[in-house]
Amino acid sequence: MPKQRFMTLPRHILEGEKKHPEATGELSALLSQIALAAKTISLEVNKAGLADILGFTGETNTHGEQVKKLDMFAHEIMIRALDHGGHFCVMASEEEEDIIHIPSHHDIGKYVILFDPLDGSSNIDANVSIGTIFSIYKRISPEGTPGTLEDCLQPGTEQVAAGYIVYGSSTIFVYTTGEGVYGFTLDPAFGEFLLSHDDIKISKTCSIYSLNEGNYKYWNNGLKKYIKYLQDADDQRGKPYTARYIGSMVADVHRNLLYGGIYIYPADKRSPTGKLRLMYECNPMAFIVEAAGGRAICGHRRIMEIEPESLHQRVPIYIGSEEAVNEVEKYLKEYGDVDLTN
């Protein structure tokens, strides 16, 4: 067994920046700030069953969903960890209807961050893996001025970094700057993220599919036929495929990233534009999976090429191993039921 490098997250980020003489160190600093927020959230998630933190706040978020206490804790920790470092000009959270301005007494930077503070929060009380997802862009408005909505509404192709943190049996921080995908596991003994998944590559082929089959009757014909195709026995093709669905996007995509697989959250008759958010979930996950060699589409086009129209825009998503995404795309086109969102 090859000896694993003893590599911390800050050291890895710093060594990556050394490869680019034009780097200023800002990206390294802001990723370290996100890591600090992740450690704090991880502590609260791990003691959620003991602390008075579970349950609903009694309020609803911008999507009309009930807000859980831990959601708001994670939301506030992300803001407090990131608003004072002088690296960001504006932020946006899935839990806030509008953009989040940097306080006037703090320096204004050149980066933009959008985040889902606690993906899969409906699973909190059941002790199922949940996570934080983030996406980073460079501003397009003039430097030195407050950030704008336009800074946040950039297509995913403009991302300079993205990542997620899984809070499960261990806490894992996965990120990319477009050049490789790397995973770091939090060592609780001394509170540092250590490299555990070096240069992750998603398998081009797979035998796992992840989606909520309880919505079958609401799907379009193309998706129905694709799932039936996966379930047909065919030893030469490695089928039938295995269904693995956690119900937390960050956990499902993380598993498929490591083992190969396709994650699907389609549009259907009840949600004709899909349910997942383009800016907070789909774009960052697409950036990560593509950097690992996979694909991410909305049904008829690449996720990251969609021109965003609003902060909380929803889209369908098919993401994972390249050959599996190619196959579902073929079925959607062949049966004329592509999910049109743009």
Number of helices: 8
Q: Strand order of the main beta sheet, please?
A: 4-3-5-6-7-8-9-10
Mean pLDDT level: 89
Count of the domains:
2
The CATH homologous superfamily of the largest domain is called Fructose-1,6-Bisphosphatase, subunit A, domain 1
Q: Which parts are unreliable, with pLDDT below 50 for 5 consecutive residues or more?
A: none
* Distance separating the two termini: 48 Å
CATH class of the largest domain reads Alpha Beta
Number of strands: 17
Gyration radius (Cα, Å) is: 20 Å
Q: Give the oligomer, counting copies of the same chain as homo and different chains as hetero.
A: single chain
At CATH level 2, the architecture of the largest domain is: 2-Layer Sandwich
Summarize the structure.
By secondary structure, this protein is of the alpha+beta class. The chain contains 8 helices and 17 strands.
Task: Report on the architecture of this protein.
The protein is α+β, with helices and mostly antiparallel strands. It has two domains: 9-197, Fructose-1,6-Bisphosphatase, Chain A, domain 1, CATH 3.30.540.10; 208-334, D-Maltodextrin-Binding Protein, domain 2. Helix content is 29%, strand content 24%. The termini are far apart. The model has no long low-confidence stretch (mean pLDDT 89).
